[in-house]
Specification:
BirA Bifunctional Protein, domain 2; 2 domains; 257 residues; seven-stranded mixed sheet; globular; SH3 type barrels; 5 helices; five-stranded antiparallel sheet; alpha+beta; 12 strands
């Protein structure tokens, strides 16, 4: 699938690329044509669930905004999964042993556990005209030599894994194009997107724990499948549980007494 032409713009420093594109949308300064905005430094970068995104030298910090016309309202929650699949389409071509961690992290799996390579934040923003846009923030540890130790989960970078630098400008363009293709697939073949996502999702088949915003465990069990609306089904001792807005971490399965 060929995506439409994307306008690329780069800024040295900004509070948040997602926030800037959202401001442009609400000020009616964007058309439905897709735009990708990147920055060297974000002073208020955000991750999922209100967390901050740390600046690291050599990282890619970018946001893609595109109109959602033609995507059914019930499919809008799947934009997050489509974005993760698009990033993985690109990263998996240059680095083996990568996978998607539900809902939208890209992880390296070569050490037998998950090291976070990329985080994604998706937001739905409405223009005064009533038209809606998906704003997809993407943070990738690309040419990072070192990574912060205080992260919630172990991290990896493309440079460390490949033992060489990557072409950041080329990678940004490839990722933006692949993400747009996957998002637009929601207009035509929702089932294919969910199938492909499920095939690449390292969470499925793993013993996991889901926690709420306060860090309290909601349920734990084996992640079994992804529903057509993007929610995760976990098989627990009490039956199946469905989660849609939780942090899900892969745990060591408790040993039998």
């Amino acid at each position: 699938m060929m995506s439409e032409a994307i306008l690329f713009e780069h800024i040295g420093e900004i509070d948040s690329t997602n926030a800037e594109l959202s401001r442009r949308i609400t000020a009616q300064r964007l058309t439905s044509a897709p735009i990708c905005l990147s920055a060297d430094i974000q002073t208020s970068g955000r991750g999922r669930r209100g967390r901050s995104w740390l600046n690291t030298d050599g990282s890619i910090m970018m946001s893609l905004a595109c109109g959602t016309s033609g995507i059914a309202s019930e499919s809008l929650p799947l934009i997050s999964l489509a974005a993760a699949l698009g990033v993985h389409d690109t990263v998996s071509k240059i680095l083996e042993y990568t996978a998607v961690k539900w809902p939208n992290d890209i992880v390296c799996t070569d050490k037998g556990f998950h090291e976070k390579l990329c985080g994604i934040l998706c937001e739905l923003v409405f223009a005064p005209s009533g038209s809606s846009f998906a704003v997809i923030g993407i943070g990738i540890n690309a040419n990072c030599n070192t990574l912060p130790k205080e992260l919630m989960m172990p991290a990896a970078s493309l440079r460390i894994k490949l033992e060489k630098s990557v072409d950041i400008e080329l990678l940004k363009r490839q990722i933006a194009s692949a993400v747009l293709d996957r998002v637009y697939l929601l207009k035509y073949d929702l089932q294919e997107l969910v199938r492909e996502y499920s095939r690449r999702c390292a969470t499925l088949g793993s013993f996991v724990a889901a926690t709420d915003l306060m860090g309290k465990t909601v349920c734990e069990g084996t992640a079994r499948r992804i529903l057509s609306d993007g929610r995760l089904v976990i098989e627990t001792d009490a039956g199946e549980a469905v989660v849609d807005a939780a942090d899900v971490s892969i745990r060591t399965r408790p040993s039998a007494e």
